[in-house]
Amino acid sequence: MDQIFLASFLSFAAILLTFSLSFFALIRTKKSPDSNYNSLPPGSFGWPIIGETIAFLFGKPEKFVGERMKKYSSDIFKTKILGEKTAVFCGPNGHKFIFSNEQKLFTSFRPHPIQKLFRSYQTTKSPHPLPPQTPNGEAKFIRQPGFFKPEALARFLGKMDSISQQYIHKHLVGKDEIKAYPLAKNVTLTISCRFFLGIDNPERISRFVDKFDDITLGMHSIIMNIPGTIFYRANKAAAAVRKELVNVIKEKKMAMKNGAIMQDLLSHLIVATDPTGKSLPENEIADKIMGLIVAGYSTVATAIAFVIKYVGERPEIYHRIRAEQMEIAEAKKAGELLEWEDMQKMKYSWNVICETMRLNPPLQGTFREVLTDFTYAGYTIPKGWKVYWTVSSTNMNPKYFKDPEKFDPSRYDGIEEGPPLPYTFVPFGGGPRMCPGKEYARLTILAFLHNLVKLYKWEVLFPNEKVIGDMMPTPEKGLPIRLLHLL
After folding, report:
1. 432-465 pLDDT, tens per residue?
2. pTM of this prediction?
3. Among 277, 293, 339, 410, which is least packed by CB within 10 angstroms?
4. What span, in angstroms and rounded, lies between the C-alpha atoms of 113 and 129?
């Protein structure tokens, strides 16, 4: 009886396998609209439905890009990732072409996982769609107030400085060893919430650190809302953060109604209106703020963590940074906070941060949607396709960076080999859509580093600690360091 059942099961499995292979073969051979184009970029769309998404998400980005550049073209190749036929532009020429043709050939595109997690980004379904895109590709009502302009950031710089001081004193004083990565995440999230939400209570939002991590990972994942999957965790995390943010919005509205003066971005979104003159619903405000916090949190925290790692492993670099920062500190009066002019003096420190971002990019790249057919490098890119620019085609390329594996901050001072060629180092993108938070990120990292090196020297306990995660590099053990108090 068992043998009969086994034979029947195997026969059914064979029939199912044959049917599946035939179905996939039919899909692969079915004529596509793209077959009308004779000069598509070289490359492969991979498997039916999923394309090359798994290799893109779970292989090292530089490996995914590098292998295809060698196999197909060093300029451009086609693939299918996250459900979209995509042309990957490589090298400085590719970067320049994309950055120079915003709103001419390209418009912004958010991958489907992001659209699902941040519901108001689903513009066709939302009763209050996002406002028309500006040439910068961002919602006009977010950029208009100028929260990321130097004068606005200069006013907030003192708060960045004081938050960094408070966190270092609270979490480092009296300790011999700490994990630097969780510390970087907490201080970065605290600064983000103060800047975007106007919240002075760090514990309120910092308890959501793990949820913001889950959201960040889920933004580039396979959409499977099944327990245990990356997207499922991200979706649950987004719901929890959205609920808390709606509570913050209600409290903010009440405070504003009672005459409180608010100068944060959340307050602006509360009073802003869409193109029809209607105020945005609270859930949509929460989504937009959540997106901004995620953008200003994960990338900055990653950069801070790896700066601590690289500086802790190189005493000569630490001493140069400390000398630069102490010269600034000693010129200030007791209790005086950092000012805009001070940040312009931190040139070597910023070079170190740039080299950190080259070796461990906090942002791998972003997508665009093609507005009209165009030709690049002799190949046709059809309307509706997506394009993707990536730092992986230049950051570790010896053609653009001598000894790319070496940590060398002097690359950026232009003394020995000249500064990096244009469009080879683009950690914040470029052109009209350059990340509006570039200066915010720069000031946040420098303010924290300034306060850290004034008080401490440190040793990295596990120099060979494994870095896990491909889209979001993470020290596996949390980057434990041994602290040496200097004062």
Report:
1. 777 778 899 999 999 999 999 999 999 999 999 9
2. 0.87
3. 277
4. 18
